C-alpha cells in the first residue's frame, strides 16, 4: 500500500499532531478572546496592559444589553427576524446566480465568454466601500428603497462567488459533461444533477462567505432604509452601542454584541463544515 | 433545455451541413447567455454602473445640498493630483500595502499548502483540526478584528505570562521583542490562510491515490512524489489563491486605506469625488499587485512542465 496514510499511530504521526495542535491553538485564539471579552467586567475591559483571559467573569454586559434593548421602541426579535430572513434569501439566490453564471463561463461556449471572465476578475479588485452612493441612487431609482429587496439585491452581485465556483468547475473534465449529454441530459440537467453536486465544497464555501457578508452588513440598513422596522441586527447592535452614550457601558455592550453576532456564524459553520468534508470525500472525480 | 436541443437536432437534420453548424452554435450561445443573464443584470446594475459613476465622480467635485440636490463640478485631474502630489496619507498607506502584500502573499500560499497537506493526511482527529483551521474565515470579517486590536487581543505582548517566560529563556529584551513581533505576524498570516487552505484541500482530495502508488512502485520517495505529483496537481489553484488573498487583504476592513476612503467621503475639503478617485487609484494598485504575483507564479508553472 501507499505510505501516505499510515493506519497505525507511529512516530511520524506524533510530530504531525504536535505541529497541528500548536497551530490550531493560534487559530482558535480569536474565538477564545471573543468569548472571554464578553464576560469581562468593565475594570478588566479598560485594564492596561489589556488582558487576554477574563479574571472574574460577570454577566453584567449581558444585563446591559437586555436593559438597553428593552428601552428601544422596536423589539429585538424584529431585527433578528429581518437579519435571518434577508440572509437566507441572499444565500440561496447568490448560490443559484453565481453557480449558473460560473457554469456558463466555465463549460458553455458562447460569444463574449472571455470578456465576461475578464470583467468579473477585474470587478473583484474594486473596493465596495467606494460605490455606496451610486448604489443608493440605483436603489432609489428602482423604487426598492425601504423594502426587503434593498437588503437582498445589492448583495447578489458577488464576483468572488463566481470566481471560486468557476475555478472548481474548470477542474471537472469535459468528458463527464459529454457523457451525460450522450445519455440525453440537457444543459439544465447537466448543471443541476452533474455539476452542482461535484462543486459542493465550493458552494458551501461561497455560502459561508455570503452568510458573513450578509449577516454583518450594515450598509443596507444605514443607507438603503429609513424605516426602523426593516433594519437588521448588526445595525441595531451598532446603534445600541452608540446610544448608550457612555464609554464604559459602550465597551461592554460592543463586547457582548460581538459575541451575539458571532455565535450564529459559528453554528452555521460547524454544520456546513461537516458537509464540505463529507462531500469532498465522495466526489466521483479522482 | 432538453426540448430545445432536441428540436435543434431535428431541424438541423434537414438543412445543409454548412448551415447546421451555425445554428447549433447560436443555440449554444443562447443557452450560455440564458445561464449567465441573471448575473449580467445584477452586475450591470450594482457593479458596472456604480463603477462608471465612480469614474465619473472622480473627475468632479461632488457636493450635496438639501435644496440643490447633487451638484457635480468638473475639476479634471485635480482630485488625482491632490492625492498623488499634495496630500500624503494615501500614498504612504498604498506603499505600505503594496510592499507588505507582496511579502505576505507567498508566505500565506506556502503556509496554506503545508497546512492543507497536513490536514489531508488521515490521522485521528483531523476533522477537529480542519474545523479549527477554517474558523478564522468567520472572524476575519467585520468589527470583531477591530475590537480585538483595540482591546489587545491580537498582541501576545499584552500577555505578560508568555512575555516573562520568554524573557527567562532569552536574556536580551530586543531579541524577545523581535520574536514576539515575528510571531504575531505569522499568527495573523495563519488567520488569513483559511480560504486558501480550503481551496488547496479540495484540490488535494481529488488527486488519485493510484498515482502515488505507481510512483512509489517506481521507487519515488514521498519527497519526490510531492514535487512530481502533488505540486503540479495543485499548481493551477495557486494563482486562484493569489487573486483571492490580494483581494481579501485589500478589502479587509482593518485596512487603513479603506478607512481613508470612508473618511474622505465626509471630509468637507475632499468629498465623494476625492473618495472616488482614491478608490480608482486603489484598484489600480491591486491590479498591479495581482499582475505581478500572477505572472510570477505562472512562469514557474510553465517551466515545471
From TrEMBL, chain A:
InterPro entries: MetI-like, MetI-like_sf. Its main location: membrane. The chain crosses the membrane at residues 16-39, 84-105, 117-136, 148-169, 190-215, 247-272. It is a multi-pass membrane protein. The keyword Magnesium does not apply. Keywords: Cell membrane, Membrane, Transmembrane, Transmembrane helix, Transport. The keyword Cell membrane applies. Residues 80-272 form the ABC transmembrane type-1 domain. It is found in: Cell membrane. Belongs to the binding-protein-dependent transport system permease family. This is ABC transporter permease.
UniProtKB/TrEMBL annotation, chain B:
Belongs to the binding-protein-dependent transport system permease family. This is ABC transporter permease. PANTHER family: BINDING-PROTEIN-DEPENDENT TRANSPORT SYSTEMS INNER MEMBRANE COMPONENT (PTHR43227:SF3), BLL4140 PROTEIN (PTHR43227). Gene3D superfamilies: MetI-like (1.10.3720.10). The chain crosses the membrane at residues 29-52, 97-119, 128-145, 182-204, 233-252, 273-296. It comes from Paenibacillus cisolokensis. It comes from the Bacteria. Keywords: Cell membrane, Membrane, Transmembrane, Transmembrane helix, Transport.
